[in-house]
């Protein structure tokens, strides 16, 4: 069992995330907010929506690379644990710094869903004036199919 002092009593500070990881977190949050607002509003904001999507996919690619090459606590091997750690966490027996084992699963799921969402958006169209930057690489039927997945996956993204 893990017994920790409340934050008000503790005097030490542990900095888990390095500057690139913190910058990634805040830039990603801003990008998702911009993409969400412009996507739901549509109209003239769709160009900005597309640009935000390109920034987001770049950030996801950076985080994937940083998860293998970054500082100690940014690496996936540091915080992605196996089923035993997840079981211990669910039974209240886990103690650690940073993401708990369940949070680590979310850390893996969020970039995967973001990559899927942005990936479908790259080929999407709105049947009015906006086409994703890779729209010309697929036929209209495929673009419409990917647009449907793009619109549906936003709810999974918001859930995460």
Order of helices and strands: HHHHHH
Q: Shape, please?
A: elongated
Q: Give the distance, in angstroms, between the N- and C-terminal Cα atoms.
A: 29 Å
How many whole angstroms does the radius of gyration measure? 19 Å
Sheet of most strands: none
SS-derived structural category: mainly alpha
Helix amount: 55-70%
Number of DSSP E strands: 0
Explain what the structure shows.
The chain has helices at residues 19-41, 46-69, 76-79, 83-90, 101-121, 140-159. Helix 1 runs antiparallel to helix 2, helix 2 (46-69) packs across helix 5 and helix 5 packs antiparallel against helix 6. The longest helix has 24 residues, at 46-69. The mean pLDDT is 89. The chain has 160 residues and is mainly α. The protein has six helices and no strands.
Salient structural properties:
160 residues, mainly alpha, elongated, 62% helix
A few lines on this structure:
With 160 residues, the protein is mainly alpha-helical. The chain is built from 6 helices and no strands. Helix 1 packs antiparallel against helix 2 and helix 2 packs across helix 5.
Write the layout of secondary structure elements.
Elements: H1 19-41, H2 46-69, H3 76-79, H4 83-90, H5 101-121, H6 140-159
């Amino acid at each position: 069992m893990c017994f920790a002092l409340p934050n008000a009593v503790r005097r030490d500070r542990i900095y888990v995330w390095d500057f690139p990881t913190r910058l990634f977190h805040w830039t990603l949050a801003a990008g998702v907010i911009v993409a969400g607002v412009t996507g739901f509003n549509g109209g003239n904001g769709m160009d900005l929506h597309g640009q935000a999507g390109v920034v987001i996919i770049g950030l996801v690619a950076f985080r994937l690379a940083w998860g293998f090459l970054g500082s100690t606590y940014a690496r996936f091997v540091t915080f992605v644990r196996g089923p035993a750690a997840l079981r211990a966490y669910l039974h209240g027996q886990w103690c650690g710094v940073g993401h708990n084992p369940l949070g680590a699963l979310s850390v893996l799921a969020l970039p995967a869903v973001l990559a899927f969402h942005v990936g479908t958006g790259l080929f999407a169209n709105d049947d009015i004036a906006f086409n994703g930057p890779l729209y010309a690489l697929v036929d209209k039927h495929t673009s419409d199919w990917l647009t449907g997945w793009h619109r549906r996956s936003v709810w999974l993204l918001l859930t995460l």
